[in-house]
Write a structure and sequence with these properties.
about 160 residues; alpha/beta; Rossmann fold; seven-stranded mixed beta sheet; two-stranded antiparallel ribbon
Length: about 160
Amino acid sequence: MHQIKKWAIAIIILAVMLTLSCSKQIPEQRFVTENAEYDLLITGVTSEFKADIISRIVDRYKDQGNVNLVNMDKLDQLQCDDYDAILVIDSVQAWSYWNFSLNSFLEKTETCKNIVLLYTAGDPDWKYQYHELDAITSASQVEDQDRVFNELTYEIDVLIAKNG
């Protein structure tokens, strides 16, 4: 019986490590514009689908504002008030229970009103809400990119107009 527990623990640890290793961090970059109209932060994990969306978001916003891409492991160091809009991108892992950095950040920033959250999941109909924050959700499918991009830019534009 003791041996079975050891194997079960080892399998759980391996599953968690594999799940976390599938997530690739957003490469840190900063785009600074003279006389910036806003500050946009983008953080989270990336994949081919998310990288394409991030690239489109950066291209849309970098000419009029400062756009800062940071690793998700730095979420605890961020202050909501330093940005007009914060875009957080993550993948659903075990119905979001394994998203430790994101969950910690969301708890810390419950009162922040400038966060846009994109969650990708295998189930295209899956929806996520954290208190009053509704996430934009999508499966990582190419045919969803335009819809996701349009939803994200709409939410970011609303925040920039309100905070700018």
